[in-house]
């Protein structure tokens, strides 16, 4: 993982960010690489997540709309939709705005993409989040299933380290949390978590008052790096929605939809 963890002495009712969109190389059918935000508590008993994933067309498990849970209300853009175009190294950059928030009235947790409601998780799915979240994570994660491969090279983000900066390394920007007053603000406290620092990195921006707000660069090439000689052993999580370079949410069912691709924002 290369993530920032936000925490406070209060509860959160949501989080949002702008996610840079890339197509990282996935070394094996069993591997995946993602960028997303997680809403959870210290117990990690329940968590909700949304973002984009590259997983080499992996179809095992229970993702997107293949099992009950997430209720899609948007009839245009559906779960598993491809995100196109994607960013080009040193060239044009693309990004999507993703938001998870708790509805004041129903207690259900909603997802927004590009300011459009996608659907919701019924509150019964995540009972430990009934009073709100205490942790919200933003960042990237890679899962590599251990095999005889000596040096798997699944990338995170753009496949380049954070020090390369804009147009070369993947970023999150305008990272915010929804506080107990239902107001979005910058997190008071953050913690950088880098459990495979030689393989993948994370660098938090210093100027939070600029147009990017709280931002960070993350990612890396994996084991081709000289500082990453060993096999990554990041544990794969079950129950995350995945699709190749597509939108994903934790579980879900589709009401109806035309399968249109979402509009992607150009970054300059």
TrEMBL record:
Which InterPro entries is this protein grouped with? Answer: Glutamic_endopeptidase, Neprosin
Q: Name one Pfam family in it.
A: Neprosin
Domain spans labelled Neprosin PEP catalytic:
1-229
| Classification via PROSITE patterns | NEPROSIN_PEP_CD
Report the protein name in the record. Answer: Neprosin PEP catalytic domain-containing protein
The scientific name of the source species is Colocasia esculenta (Wild taro)
